[in-house]
Design goal:
Elements: E1 5-7, H1 9-33, H2 40-66, H3 75-80, H4 83-104, H5 123-139, H6 141-150, H7 156-162, H8 169-196, H9 203-227, H10 234-241, E2 257-259
Parallel strand pairs: 1-2
Helix pairs in contact: 1-7, 1-9, 2-4, 4-8, 5-6, 5-9, 6-8, 6-9, 7-8
């Protein structure tokens, strides 16, 4: 990002409050990828859910948002030309290819039919999306900013997946998908975070934003743990939701911010 601006103390506090929850998500991935119980079948299961998130939460969600506000005369053309729609669709495609690599390693009778590339929702993800919708409906712009701030969980999934490179053929397929998505997701998140630095938010707005992001961040840990087949115990998840993990270091320079 070009230029550097001072990060207001409220934004620094918001980042610090969420850094332990980002680390909680990272612990889910470390536990899963380091588990001897990880197999092609378990990879197939989490990847098909990731496909769902990219295509339904990502592409379809963005299209639904756009069609509520764009010019009716150019609706479909304008929506399909949207940069976020195009990038989310590409993210779906690269994870679908990783899913295909995992499915190909299963016994023939256990391989999923192609329609599963769309994926299926799961309770914890539905709960997160419901919370975001409720926050948007109740808090308007602050709810929208909270969802943008928490989206992607600071890229911890993609970093964990990238580190698999050089392992098995399936590891490499996952690493390639995560590498392709990482820069996009991080850039979107960092732009959103940096954008908060220039916003005239009141003290009450900042307090509300912190509360909403923490509520969403806690559900993200639960959602990811379920997506990856519960590599962490329920007790550990509750500890992480309470902030037990050591906070991740935030890259202020990449976000174009200077902490005071």
């Amino acid at each position: 990002m070009s230029g550097t601006i001072d990060a207001p103390v409220e934004l620094i506090a918001l980042i610090e409050a969420n850094a332990r929850l980002w680390a909680g998500e990272a612990e889910v991935f470390a536990a899963y990828f380091g588990s001897p119980q990880r197999t092609a079948a378990t990879d197939e299961a989490w990847l098909v859910r990731q496909c769902y998130k990219e295509l339904i939460d990502g592409v379809a969600g963005r299209l639904a948002q756009l069609t509520q506000s764009i010019d009716e005369s150019r609706g479909a053309t304008q929506a399909l030309a949207d940069d976020v729609v195009k990038s989310e669709l590409e993210h779906y495609a690269v994870f679908a290819m990783a899913h295909r690599a995992a499915a190909a390693m299963l016994p023939v009778g256990e391989r999923p039919i192609r329609v599963r590339f769309v994926g299926v929702d799961w309770a914890e993800n539905a709960a997160l999306q419901t919370m975001r919708s409720e926050h948007l409906r109740e808090y308007g712009d602050i709810g929208r900013r909270a969802a943008a701030f928490t989206e992607g969980g600071y890229g911890t999934l993609y970093l964990a997946g990238m580190r698999l490179a050089g392992g098995s053929a399936l590891d490499d397929a996952i690493a390639q998908a995560c590498t392709r998505v990482f820069d996009d997701e991080c850039e979107h998140m960092l732009q959103g975070i940096a954008g908060l630095a220039a916003q005239p938010l009141s003290r009450a707005d900042w307090q509300c934003l912190e509360r909403l992001t923490l509520e969403q961040g806690r559900l993200r840990i639960r959602m990811r743990n379920a997506q990856f087949g519960h590599p962490l115990s329920s007790e550990r998840v509750r500890e992480l939701e309470a902030g037990a993990a050591e906070p991740l270091a935030f890259d202020y320079a990449r976000a174009g911010l200077r902490p005071r």
